[in-house]
Design goal:
Strand order of the largest sheet: 2-1-3-5-4
Protein name: Mismatch-specific DNA-glycosylase
Structural class: alpha/beta
CATH class: Alpha Beta
Oligomer: single chain
Distance between the termini: 37 Å
Largest sheet: 5 strands, mixed
CATH architecture: 3-Layer(aba) Sandwich
Number of strands: 5
Helix content: 25-40%
Pfam family, one: UDG
GO molecular function: pyrimidine-specific mismatch base pair DNA N-glycosylase activity; uracil DNA N-glycosylase activity
Order of helices and strands: EHHEHEHEEH
Keywords: DNA damage, DNA repair, Hydrolase
Radius of gyration: 14 Å
Strand content: 5-15%
CATH superfamily: Uracil-DNA glycosylase-like domain
GO biological process, one term: base-excision repair, AP site formation
Shape: globular
Length: 169
């Protein structure tokens, strides 16, 4: 399998947006499938989920209001393999998806994902002052990749901010 399907529907609490699928995700057809990726653990530790989900359960998170997509759909070993053309096309497609599905929050899993999407150079962690799509709140979180040098406690703290906002909404 090469293309990993979006798990998306109207009325989501959060749409998580990654760079693109890993090779492992492409092979399995599931989001955040690389064993070194800490995504599922981060969701649980931050309070977004009540347990650690398996990558093979990714589609079941639609039931609790969480969806998944990527700015580029082609699996690669690393994000630096993505071309400018792929980012440009993916950005346009992502904007259309967000306008159509209107999730309450869009959580960009990686600062670089949001920079490609928003075309803004200066981006901070957390909620963004100006969202790209009216009525949808943009949130920037660290990548959950095992390659990221941040301590997991710091990553979890940032994800906890969106968990608190979802709980209030």
């Amino acid at each position: 399998m090469d293309i990993i399907l979006d798990h998306i529907k109207e009325g989501l609490k959060i749409l998580f947006v990654g760079f693109n699928p890993s090779i492992r995700s492409g092979e399995t057809g599931h989001h955040y499938a690389n064993p070194n990726n800490r995504f599922w653990k981060i969701l649980h530790k931050s309070g977004l989920t009540n347990r650690i989900y398996s990558t093979f359960e990714d589609y079941t998170l639609l039931e609790i209001g969480y969806g998944f997509t990527n700015i580029v759909s082609r699996p690669t070993k690393a994000a630096d393999e993505i071309t400018k053309e792929e980012y440009r096309a993916g950005r346009e497609e992502l904007i259309s998806k967000i306008k159509h599905y209107k999730p309450k929050f869009v959580c960009f899993v990686g600062k670089g994902v949001y920079q490609e999407y928003s075309k803004r150079k200066e981006v901070s962690w957390g909620f963004q002052e100006l969202s790209m799509v009216p009525g949808v709140t943009d949130f920037v979180a660290p990548s959950s990749s095992g390659l990221v040098r941040m301590k997991i406690e710091e990553i979890v703290r940032i994800y906890s901010e969106i968990a608190a906002a979802v709980e209030k909404s």
